[in-house]
Write a structure and sequence with these properties.
mainly alpha
């Protein structure tokens, strides 16, 4: 089962309902015993307590596993967010071709590209590679360069915001005139 927030909340809800039902059944059992004037022995109370504690321990363990998975997912998403922000900045050297890139800019791009290979999903890496292959071939048609750049940006965005409605056409390229 893939750990998503929806699945986790459904699982927690299921366990919570089960605990409520078990608690209600235990309460009902107690009421029946009192109504029929039967008195539970210390052994009966001990057995019931043991069962309840086992159930509590089981659900506590499951809850900790879910919390851990959520925390790990959140850490990965934050790491990707920071990396993709840096990558987006360093990719601009390919778009603003009128200004030569510095050694620092190219070093930063290489560093970010290596990090993307560690953290990005396959689709994002493939989109980035398409963009870079166009740069290697020195393709000069700006619309193709802009389109592949926007595809990379959208792939990175979809990893962080999976339900995004934006398309590559929604990415706007600006060109400033230097005085």
């Amino acid at each position: 089962m893939k750990l998503t927030l929806k699945n986790i909340y459904n699982t927690i809800s299921k366990y919570f309902i089960q605990v409520i039902i078990i608690s209600f059944l235990l309460f009902l059992q107690t009421c029946i015993i009192v109504k029929t004037e039967l008195f539970a022995t210390k052994q009966d109370i001990g057995d019931i307590t043991e069962i309840v504690e086992e159930i509590e321990n089981k659900y506590a363990k499951n809850l900790e596993e879910i919390k851990s998975a959520l925390n790990e997912e959140s850490n990965i998403r934050n790491t990707r967010r920071e990396l993709y922000t840096d990558m987006a900045k360093s990719m601009r050297v390919f778009i603003t071709s009128s200004v030569p890139s510095t050694k620092n800019e190219t070093d930063m791009f290489v560093k970010n590209y290596s990090s993307v290979w560690l953290w990005a999903n396959d689709k994002t890496i493939l989109e980035l590679n398409k963009f870079l292959n166009l740069q290697i071939l020195r393709h000069t048609e700006k619309t193709i360069t802009h389109e592949t750049y926007a595809k990379v940006m959208l792939a990175m965005r979809k990893e962080i915001i999976p339900d995004t409605k934006l398309k590559t056409d929604d990415y706007i390229f600006l060109q400033f005139v230097q005085k």
